[in-house]
Amino acid sequence: MDSHFGLMNVWNQGDFVTKAVAVLLIGMSLASWIVIIVKALDVIRYKRLAKHSQDFWHSEDFATALNKLGTDDSNPFRALALEGREAAAHHRNTKAHLHDALDVSDWITRALRNGIDAFTARLQTGLAILASVGSTAPFIGLFGTVWGIYHALMSIGSAGQATIDKVAGPIGEALIMTALGLAVAIPAVLGYNALVRGNKFVLTKLNSFAHDLHAYFVTGARVQSGNESIVVPLKKG
To answer: Which of 18, 26, 100, 196 has a 20 to 30 A CA-CA distance from 160?
Structure first.
């Protein structure tokens, strides 16, 4: 309640710069929370799709396996399977092109890698906002504090009163801007780290799936070790 009262005092007594800093920090907080919520929901969905992607290999043929991945075009596992199928068919049926210099393994590797790179770029959208907010919000809040303290001291000096009860209130209210900057930055940093970990997990599963797809389209069988797929990131070339 006291902090809310202090923040209202900062707003009511602050000048244009102080209010602009407060509005900027609130806007940065809203932007970061929107990114965190939207991207977290995406990561949860992709993790669920990664779990269901194992059903792809428990099928009699490719068409049946593809149906198990659903019809959602945003499903990266389905998109990767389609990329691999189209690359294999294109290399097999098309002649007299430059890609004929590449064997089928290199051609499919290139197609799958392009699909993974495109999904990676989409997966990382918005993380730059969190990184920017997390790194700049404390300094913006500090700037607001310094500006508020400066004007508080100027007001106290012009009034000719420098007692502790006259100084503590205005300066304490100015320090709220630093706290506001930290309150904006900390969730952004924590959200960024959590999303990076989630994205890394999804990309690991997608690379593993791509490796199995590559083996399937080149050799006709999924690479296995015992009952589990060998998780090896897809390499270029």
So the answer is: 18
> Which residues make Cβ contacts (< 8 Å) with residue 52, sequence separation at least 6?
68, 69
Distance between CA atoms of 38 and 161, rounded to whole angstroms?
A: 51
Q: What is the pLDDT of residues 23-68, one digit of tens each?
A: 899 999 999 999 999 999 999 999 998 888 888 888 777 888 888 8
Backbone φ and ψ of 60, nearest 5°? -80, -30
Task: Tell the residue number behind the tokens 């669920």, with chain if given.
Answer: 48
The span from the CA of 174 to the CA of 180, in Å, is 10
Beta bridge mates, 229? 224
In this prediction the pTM is 0.77
Q: Are β-strands 224-225 and 228-229 bridged in parallel, bridged antiparallel, or unpaired? A: antiparallel
